Amino acid sequence: MKIIELKETVTASNDRDAAVLRGELKAQKTLLVNLMASPGAGKTTLLERTIRDLGEKYRIAVMEADVDSDVDAKRIESLGAKAVQAHTGGMCHMDAGMTRRALEELDAPESDLVILENVGNLICPAEFDTGAGKNVMLLSVPEGDDKPLKYPLMFSTSDVLLITKTDVLPYFDFDLQKCCERAKKLNPRLEIFAVSSKTGAGMDAWETWLSNAIDSWNA
Amino acid sequence: MHEMGIILHLAKTLDETCKEQHLKRIGKIVLEVGEVSGIMTDYFVDCWNYFRARHPRLSEAELVIETTPAVTYCSACRKTYPTVRYGRECPYCHSGETWLVRGNECVIKEIEAEDEDEDP
Hints:
The structure holds two protein chains of two kinds. Chain A is of the alpha/beta class. In chain A, 37% of the residues lie in helices and 22% in strands. Chain A has one domain: P-loop containing nucleotide triphosphate hydrolases (Rossmann fold). Chain A has eight helices and eight strands. By secondary structure, chain B is α+β, with helices and mostly antiparallel strands. Chain B has a domain at 2-68 and 103-115: hypothetical protein PF0899 fold, CATH 3.30.2320. Chain B contains three helices and six strands, in the order αβαβββαββ. In chain B, helix 1 packs across helix 2 (41-51). The longest helix of chain B is centred in the N-terminal third of the chain and has 19 residues, at 2-20. Chain B is elongated. The two termini of chain B are 36 Å apart. Strand 1 of chain A pairs antiparallel with strand 6 of chain B.
């Protein structure tokens, strides 16, 4: 027996797979957005509205990652966007290998934007690089403004924070400014948009950001 | 479930290392796990003992975990302090402008392995 020093992170094999996948997606001009949030934060409702607003300008496809069931994929398909259901087989997150298999099923090169709706969970998805070009997280008003303190990794690995369900702000003790400060402290380059997918408030700013991200990735 | 996902990747990473470095089998794996990495070490070892059987080169590998202390840096008074004891607020100047320096990592420090051409 000999001793070999590795000093490599345990998820090194996934990091390598993710970097390769990201390179391929860049070359084929497809922006992959990894959407992460708790169950019930409004991921699918946000997607429905975003697809309705941007669906004519861009070819959009969605990968729904769930432990089981295909209810979300059916909702997306009813809007005319392509959708595939990726089952994680009991796992609490998507990794680069699972993402690649789902992309193959989707025929991704035909899309300008592919959105991966990750498993509803604020912990594990943050640990595994999926190969996405941008990471976007949702935090809904009913979840509370203290979440950046409880799930710091999710906030530090995201490019965008969408604070959703702002239409119910009057009914909750949610301090929008405090929440933004806490999130920015963890991640100074985080872009924050407060939106309501129901009323459409704030959706313009998010969709402008997304359009710019697609254009610069696919340029 | 979280531990299970990490274990699957650990096995894959080590399997790749075996192929690259022409190793016949691994006898011991030493992991450095930070105090605030969120990994439950007992459960992590149980998961490993279950999954290692799937990989012939890893099936006898013992997982040894070395816990590394978490350290936080205060950018207001420029001192460092133990994270687990004091949390986010600096115990010296009570500032909240603090950053985790280390303690959330999960790194394969070293492995004990046998070469393919070595006699048992």
